[in-house]
Every structure is written in structure tokens, then in C-alpha cells.
Structure prediction request, 229 residues.
Amino acid sequence: MEKIRLRILLLIFIGIFVSTATSAQNRNFITSLSLGFGYSGFDLEKNAIGDAQPIFYPMGGIQLQKRLSPKWALTVFPNVGMSGNTKSVDLSLAPIRRVKSTSAFVNLAVHPKYYLNKLFYISAGPELSYLLWNYGSAFNEEERQIYNVEETDFFKRVNLLVSSSLGFSTKVAESRKNAPVQIDALWYLEFRFKRGISNILDPDFFGNDQSTGIIAFELVTGISFASKK
Prediction:
């Protein structure tokens, strides 16, 4: 049943993405290129024994935004990112001193956006995440990798998250008044938070007693191109 619900949500998200993308020539449409970094792990880490820590990772994506009113907009944000954890261990019968789990995701967020003023805005909404791969690795005292094993089958491919953002945007260049196409350039900086609301672990391997979700903090910057005609 959960897989069916997630597939329905995926179709809805794709429909919103296509609808927003096809309005690119309309008034008040903004296309943004974004790059940044994140700090993400799994919920279970806070209860884990030892010093399990989330991982830092690079991320990127594009944003498609349609301005609905002076205060409101709808933003579709396809992006790629990662999640995982690293933990120090002390195994007397093995040379392993650190283990790491790393997952890569492609995500699609749909956010209503509210402009607090001309510079600052907030947004929040659902985000669908698709797992590309997961690898488990181990390292010795010299930080040399002992093994690196794909463990994608231990996790669900499709997961649902709730994400939010607080951002700052300012105009850095604008078109000439007599230009046939009016396009302004804006620079923006955005802080994003994500939290998984579905269990990322595959119950066929972990059973129904274990459950965890993704938690991520991201700092994103980029350039936006805003069409006014």
C-alpha cells in the first residue's frame, strides 16, 4: 500500500513539474541554477552507540518558479544529494576502525513560496526522493579502504520527505528597457531543511521493528533568471 501511495505522489509531482516547465515563456517565470553542500544522516544515528555522525556532501539542482502574486509563488526543485553516516568502531579481531554508509538520491520538491519582503522568502512542502545507490565501506587505522560493498537492496528506492527553506534573493543585473525579452539576473542564498516521513529501510531485510528516515541541512546558492514579459 505504501509503494502505491508513493507512486501516486510521484505521478503528481511529475505532472506539477511538467506544468511548471511548460509555462517558461509566461510572465514572472524564474529559472534558477543551484549549487551547494549538505550535512545529512539517518534518524537512528541519534540513538546509535558510539560516535555515528552524518556526512557532508555536494549537491546541485535547478529551480523552476512561477510567480502567482506579489507575495506568493510556486517552486519546483529537482535536485541531487546524498545521505549517510560514518562511525568509529573498535573490533579486536579485525583491522576495521571506521565504517561508513553512503547513499545518493535524486529528489523532486514542490514548494509554495511566500515573500516576506523584496529580499527574503520562506517555502515548505513535500519532497520525493529516489535512491540511486548505497555503499557500505570500512577503513583501517591508516584510513585505507578495506572494502566497499553495494547495499542498495537493503533500502527502499522511493521515499517521502517534508522540506522547507529560508532564502535571500537580490537583483544583480537587468535587461535594457527596450530589449525584446525582459530577463533579470538575481543572486540567491538559501538554507534548506529536510526530514523523511517514510521508512527508508527495506522491511524484507530489517523487519518491521526498525524504522529510520533522512534528516538533512543544506546551504544552496546560485543565479536566477527572471522573465518579465
